[in-house]
Design brief:
Layout: E1 5-11, E2 18-23, H1 26-34, H2 41-44, E3 49-56, H3 59-71, H4 74-84
Length: 95
């Protein structure tokens, strides 16, 4: 089986503070964010809701996409989230 990599967006609340990251283990990474086990931005600003993610089979493409999304205007990021998750539900429980 091919290794999967994830690009994800966390939010503090609907239309709140956003965080974009990438990982090879999405469930574990979001668990760490939710339980404040990672020091930094998400812990400081309580950014714990998984509101969007993409899957790729390459670490390089995941990192490239993460950097691309981080450069996007906020409106574009909000539209991306709302196209896939219009109610801003926490997707963590569906992993």
């Amino acid at each position: 089986m091919t290794q999967q990599y994830y690009i994800y967006i966390l939010a503090s609340k609907r239309n709140g503070t956003l965080y974009i990251g990438s990982t090879s283990d999405l469930k574990q990474r979001v668990y760490l964010h939710k339980n404040k086990l990672i020091d930094g931005f998400t812990k400081k600003y309580n950014v714990t809701m998984l509101v969007y993610f993409e899957i790729t089979d390459s670490r390089v493409s995941a990192i490239h996409r993460e950097k691309q999304l981080r450069k996007w205007k906020r409106d574009w990021k909000l539209r991306l989230i709302e196209d896939e998750n219009p109610h801003w539900g926490d997707l963590y429980d569906k992993l």
